[in-house]
Amino acid sequence: MNLLDQASFLLRITHSRDIMRRYFVVNGFDGSLTMLGLILGFLLSGTSDLTIVINVCLGAAIALCMSGLSSAYVSESAERRRALNQLEKAMVDDLQESAHGEAARGVPLLIALVNGLAPMVMSLLILVPLFLDRVGIPLPLSPLYAAVVVSLLIIFLLGVFLGRISGVSWLRSGLQTLLVAIVTAALIYLFI
Fold first, then answer.
1. Cα dihedral sign for 116, 59, 55, 123?
2. pLDDT surpasses 80 at 187
3. Would you list the domain boundaries of the chain?
């Protein structure tokens, strides 16, 4: 069994796909809103030095990634150990070397990777206009405004994804998450 098949099997026997999907959306949303907030903060403060903007945003993205990795791993490890212990008591057997034992050890790592990588990937996508500007590729907007547009698009697409999962209107769901981003931006403008 290859690595992907093994991971799929472990997620299936632990019913963890929904958890991974939630972590992806929640932390992807967190990463996107954080980048939106940082970039708007730079725009409002008049900072035009893209090196500073990129470094600060990358620092935040790395911190979000590490927070997601560590918090999900610690909490999911505890939950999986608890579930395995309950199953062992019910079966009156040691399951450490079984597929369930392997799942108790492997699934927390898979969930932690999704939880940590989601905000990092979203952040890097939002920073693409800044990277493009740094290498001399012209953009139709200034790089900071282009990054705001990318962040709003990603937040909208996360809403579309949620709408597809829940079986409701993808457009309505996308617009709801976009509204959250717009309210966030309005609050940032109001307080800065």
1. positive
2. yes
3. 3-191
